[in-house]
Structures are given as C-alpha cells and as structure tokens.
Request: fold
Amino acid sequence: MAAPIESPAKSEVLSVIRFLIAKFERPAEIHKRIIAVYGNVMNRQNVTKWCRELSEGRADIHDEQRSGRPSLISDETGQAADFYDSGIQKLVPRVNK
Reply:
C-alpha cells in the first residue's frame, strides 16, 4: 500500500466524504477509507458530523462563515485574492523597518 497523503486540504477530504456518501457508504466505512489514504486527519465523530451535514444538503463545504476568511476555492470575484494581497502589502512596510 502507498504511503498516506500528507497534509491534504480540508476541502479534498470533504470532497471524498461527499463522493463516498453518494456511493451510499456508511460513516464508519468512510472513516476507515480516509484513514487508509490520508492518515489520521479526521476523527470518526467529525466524519459522522460531515456525513450528516452533507447528506442533509449542505452545499458549501468551506468554513468561510465560521472562520471569517474568504475561501480561495469558492470565490469567483477575486475578493479572496484581494484580501490576501492587501494583507501581504501591509506586511511589507513592517519587514522593511
């Protein structure tokens, strides 16, 4: 078996969960598969929680509402890029001091 994928993006893991839900996998089996491929990146309770939320029709798998940060993946207007660019520009004068 290949080595686990290190540091996967949360959106990648949640996409896998969404895919396996569509294949009618149970949360326990989804958790086993995630552990086999990604290592211990998510505990069984979180897998069950996401399975429930995604099964209930949650379309947005990003935590933008919780974190307050714009999502780079779902932002089509470029606002996320502007947000991060302005933050980097604020750091430049601090580094030059």
In short: The radius of gyration is 17 Å.
